[in-house]
């Protein structure tokens, strides 16, 4: 029998202001949630299905992980405003929204920390390695800082092996960011693995990671105080370091350099290899036009959106772009 009791939750996407990749090695990072969300509805069923099609859990590691200890099947409906494989947090947002919907359907009242642990577990199951940064941003929303020692507003600390990530809530002034999507889908796992191999082989790569960490510490003060000139400069510098690590590409560079004359700074955001760049600017419409004229898709960002939350109604279940693993 299929019960007609849908439970619906949503979670925001995110973009990384500074610190992607180096955060995997325990360095600091700054991330903002976006106003683009993924919504998921679940209900008990006699078989697992996703948007009306049979769901093979072996092909969907996020769903597989998040339903690992369930004694029954579920129907899932999803609606996404976040392009997949783009560095805008589609897989972390999906994991966060699914975790909240699944736990609530079971009659639980999950804490934010338990949702982060679930979402991070799903990300690791899918991509193999990484930090809890994206999961934390998509569960908590707003702005988060990772591993900033002087930040007092600690939310949680997550440990994995010898790495520790202290995650804090940060309040940021109103800043205007434009994201440019190259349209090239680039899953996170291989980019993280590429950097891991580089750091194993070369002390130079490890030095770059160190430098990115120091730069992000400076960026934290600039972000908090709204010093756009300094923050922008650091973002552009970070893009150069990420390029040296090998995670940019010519399409990302094209959008970054096109945005720079009208921006305080610009860089790739997320794991790179394709996906998105982000520019800090006072002229968002102009930057959006430039990005469009260079073949990218712009999103003018409202940052600081609410984290994972319950929703009224049922997700549309439009044919879903499944997150890249
Ligand atoms: C991807 O949004 C961010 C990376 O640092 C990976 C991670 O932190 O897990 C590239």
CATH architecture: 2-Layer Sandwich
Q: How is the CATH topology named?
A: Ribosomal Protein S5, domain 2
Number of domains: 1
Classification by helices and strands: alpha+beta
The total strand number stands at 13
* Overall pLDDT metric: 95
Query: How would the global form be characterised?
Result: globular
Helical amount? 25-40%
Q: Rg from C-alpha positions? A: 19 Å
Please report which band the strand proportion falls in: under 5%, 5-15%, 15-25%, 25-35%, 35-45% or over 45%: 25-35%
What is the H/E order?
Answer: EEEEHEHHHEEEEHHHHEEHEE
SS element count, helices: 9
Unreliable stretches (pLDDT < 50, length at least 5) are none
Query: What's the level 1 CATH class?
Result: Alpha Beta
Bound compounds: (R)-mevalonate
Question: What are its keywords?
Answer:
325 residues; alpha+beta; Ribosomal Protein S5, domain 2; nine-stranded mixed β-sheet; four-stranded antiparallel β-sheet; 9 helices; 13 strands; 25% strand; globular; binds (R)-mevalonate
Task: Please summarize what this structure is.
With 325 residues, the chain is of the alpha+beta class. It has a single domain, classed as Ribosomal Protein S5, domain 2 (2-Layer Sandwich).
Helix/strand layout:
Elements: E1 7-18, E2 29-45, E3 49-50, E4 53-54, H1 61-66, E5 73-80, H2 90-105, H3 112-127, H4 133-140, E6 143-146, E7 154-160, E8 163-169, E9 177-181, H5 188-201, H6 203-225, H7 228-245, H8 250-259, E10 265-269, E11 276-280, H9 284-293, E12 297-301, E13 309-311
Parallel strand pairs: 3-5
Antiparallel strand pairs: 1-2, 1-13, 2-5, 2-6, 3-4, 6-8, 7-8, 9-11, 9-12, 10-11
Helix pairs in contact: 2-3, 2-4, 3-4, 5-6, 6-7
The structure holds (R)-mevalonate.
(R)-mevalonate binds next to helix 4 and helix 5.
